[in-house]
Amino acid sequence: DTAVSQTPKYLVTQMGNDKSIKCEQNLGHDTMYWYKQDSKKFLKIMFSYNNKELIINETVPNRFSPKSPDKAHLNLHINSLELGDSAVYFCASSQERGLDYGYTFGSGTRLTVV
Amino acid sequence: AQSVTQLDSHVSVSEGTPVLLRCNYSSSYSPSLFWYVQHPNKGLQLLLKYTSAATLVKGINGFEAEFKKSETSFHLTKPSAHMSDAAEYFCVVSGGSARQLTFGSGTQLTVLP
């Protein structure tokens, strides 16, 4: 069973469109994240949710809106897509167990805006 | 605040020779440190992590890393490189109440036959 699954794996769309990326984790983790990996492979956090509550919201355009219907799901909706949104988006989840905790990443969604 | 510096953007080694990927960090907290590997067009796989237990951490595929607080370093090593080790490696620090991850810029490891 896949621990953190993202759909779709690849997404090609035109500028101006609205699209969503879905993420689900079956690990029972409390916290979920979205990370963006740019063309230079640099990874940066976008959002973090803990038990459906937004706890991290980095400087991301308002066109990006995360939605967490329950603690196992964190979806990313993007309005009015721009060329610069082309990137690989990774979903992740984590669970704190005392001082030890771990992150599990999905396999990524490669978004190409044309 | 926290940051990670990976000192080499590219490292090239011959198969069977040792691997050293260097990482320095800074953190206002007691950090947790990770190394992740990303093979071409693949997701991120955890190699190993340090979370304030033993300073020498052993990971998967023969990799290990040593946490040196005095040097604020967490270098990744492997005694003998294999062709399948060719990938992008990320050093990552985590800390603070939100436990967010801060990634280094990555090191591309090439293994020559």
Question: How would you sum up this structure in a few lines?
Answer:
The complex is a heterodimer of chains A (114) and B (113). Chain A is mainly beta.
Mean pLDDT of chain A: 89
Say how many strands of chain A there are. Answer: 11
N→C terminal distance of chain A? 34 Å
Radius of gyration of chain B (Å): 13 Å
- Quickly give the structural class of chain A: mainly beta
Q: How much of the polypeptide of chain B forms β-strand, as a percent range?
A: over 45%
Characterize the structure shown.
The complex is a heterodimer of chains A (114) and B (113). In chain A, 0% of the residues lie in helices and 61% in strands. Chain A is an all-beta fold and 114 residues long. In chain A, the strands form two sheets. In chain A, strands 2, 4, 5, 6, 9, 10 and 11 form a seven-stranded mixed β-sheet that branches. In chain A, strands 1-3-8-7 form a four-stranded antiparallel β-sheet, with no helix packed on it. Chain A is globular, with a radius of gyration of 14 Å. The model of chain A has no long low-confidence stretch (mean pLDDT 89). By secondary structure, chain B is mainly beta. Chain B contains no helices and twelve strands. In chain B, strands 2, 5, 6, 10, 11 and 12 form a six-stranded mixed β-sheet that branches. In chain B, a hairpin with a 4-residue loop joins strand 8 (64-68) and strand 9 (73-78). The relative contact order of chain B is 0.34. The model of chain B has no long low-confidence stretch (mean pLDDT 91). The A-B interface holds A 31, 33, 35, 40-45, 48, 55-56, 90, 92, 94, 96, 99-108, 110 and B 32, 34, 36, 38, 41-46, 49, 51-53, 88, 90, 94, 98-103, 105-106.
Give the secondary structure arrangement, pairings included.
The complex is a heterodimer of chains A (114) and B (113).
Chain A: E1 4-7, E2 10-13, E3 19-25, E4 31-37, E5 43-50, E6 53-57, E7 64-70, E8 73-78, E9 87-97, E10 100-105, E11 109-113
Parallel strand pairs in A: 2-11
Antiparallel strand pairs in A: 1-3, 3-8, 4-5, 4-9, 5-6, 7-8, 9-10, 9-11
Chain B: E1 2-6, E2 10-14, E3 19-21, E4 23-27, E5 32-38, E6 44-50, E7 56-58, E8 64-68, E9 73-78, E10 87-94, E11 101-103, E12 107-112
Parallel strand pairs in B: 2-12
Antiparallel strand pairs in B: 1-4, 3-9, 5-6, 5-10, 7-8, 8-9, 10-11, 10-12
